[in-house]
Amino acid sequence: MQNGRVHPASEDNDMLLAWVLGWSELVAFGALLSAFLVAGYVQPAAFAEGRGHLALWYPLLNTVILLSSGWCAAKAACYPTGAPKQRTALVGAAAGGFAFTAVKIAEYLRELPHLSDERLETFNQLYFLTTGFHLVHVIFGSLVLIVVACRPGRENVAIITTLWHVIDIVWLVMFPVVYAI
């Protein structure tokens, strides 16, 4: 840092860190989703019954919410740093994350009665672990989007919008694995 300005190499390192984090998240979710697929292969009847308890409209609504939120994040990355439109787009992306959270909590509340069914134990464990891990990322990402909206910097916006799109990609892969296959 010279004269209060971030050195370009620092920005490159920040983006490298964002990509390493993004790819490590994809690997972690890949392992969880692989476990879900393998367990579903080993216990097809239990997984079919477990999926039968899930209300498909929750994840469908959450898909629309996350895609809309991702669009807001993409728009934020295109606006000039600190511009009111950029801040609004970042807050819009965060609002989508919070809406996703509300829908996911409603979905979890609906699933609670099925937790006591021992035949569905593996399905329930993997369902809540996988979707819960994703939900934690959505909540954390939403909070970071708000912080960046308050203190935007070109590299901050680029990093959080990149990571927000990783969260979107994970959901788009998770949706068919958890709810449909």
Structure, described:
The chain has 181 residues and is mainly alpha-helical. The protein has one domain (8-180): Up-down Bundle (Four Helix Bundle (Hemerythrin (Met), subunit A)). 84% of the residues lie in helices and 0% in strands. It has 6 helices and no strands. It has helices at 8-42, 44-53, 57-78, 84-111, 121-150, 154-180. The protein is elongated, with a radius of gyration of 18 Å. The relative contact order is 0.18.
List the helices and strands and how they pair.
Elements: H1 8-42, H2 44-53, H3 57-78, H4 84-111, H5 121-150, H6 154-180
Helix pairs in contact: 1-2, 1-5, 1-6, 3-4, 3-6, 4-5, 5-6
GO cellular component, one term: plasma membrane
Transmembrane segments: 16-42, 54-77, 89-106, 126-150, 157-179
Subcellular location: Cell membrane; Membrane
